[in-house]
Amino acid sequence: MKLLNELSQKSMPTEHRPSDGDVTIPAAGVQMASGGVPGTGAAQPPTESLGRVLPEATLARMTQYLRALNIMRANGALRTSSGVLASESGVNPAILRKDLSLLGSYGTRGVGYVVTELTEHISKAMGLLQHWRVIIVGAGNLGRALSGYGGFRSRGFEVVALLDSAPDVVGTTVGDLEVQDIAELDEVLKATNANIAVLSVPGVAAQGLCDTLVARGVRSILSFAPVVLQVPSGVNLRKVDLATELQILAYHAQSLDPGGTIGGLGGA
């Protein structure tokens, strides 16, 4: 009841039902915050298996290595070299070897890497051997699409709940999930033991919902809202802004097409 009273005092449209006053001005394309300074990428918790902090750029490349290794494993490969893995990951071999050296020495000169072993080491360093339970707040088009993405489960992320505030959405079924009322957030968190939350809501609702999640003990949040969110120390926040990514792509595209012919694919 206390949560319901809190939420009733806030404007909480979800992604499928934006507020008339919600002006979506894209923020930075990707934001990483830990504490109240968005976009700094600072204060990352040390990787548990390493006792050190992996640089943000290295973390991003590790996900590429892991994807390439999973494909190799699916194709039956037992070993790989730094050159092959670098090529499949789209990076320079020297950078790959430097990145992997942060995990320890798992390769053998002249022999390469055992695919299953390296996959396990990277997964452990990134915390992917744990069971991550994800709730998605906002059951609009984006939230529904995210809840049905099969790649989450195969990478260790289980979507355990989908929540919304709209009466015509609450109670509907999306895949194996029934959309639950955001007013029942306390009960959902307790029942699911969720440890990651995804915000797929418009900007006007995002900060209030972020604050509510943090107050309920959620310490890892992925936001698709087109605003910069503030979080206290000890909370990890990542932000994805698809509109900003398209704007950046448009900037680079114009340099490839100084004559302004992009879009004229239909011919004269």
Tell me what the structure shows:
- The chain has 268 residues and is an alpha/beta fold.
- Helix content is 38%, strand content 16%.
- It contains ten helices and eleven strands.
- It has helices at 2-8, 56-74, 82-89, 93-101, 115-125, 141-147, 151-154, 185-192, 203-215, 242-256; strands at residues 30-34, 79-80, 113-114, 132-137, 157-164, 173-174, 177-178, 180-181, 196-199, 220-223, 236-240.
- The strands form three sheets. The chain has a seven-stranded mixed β-sheet, with helices on both faces.
- A hairpin with a 2-residue loop joins strand 6 and strand 7 (177-178).
- Helix 2 (56-74) packs antiparallel against helix 5 (115-125) and helix 3 packs across helix 4.
- The longest helix is centred in the N-terminal third of the chain and has 19 residues, at 56-74.
- The model is unreliable at 4-32 and 36-49 (pLDDT under 50).
Strand numbers in spatial order across the main sheet: 1-11-10-9-4-5-8
Sketch the major β-sheet. 7 strands, mixed
Gross morphology is globular
- Count of helices? 10
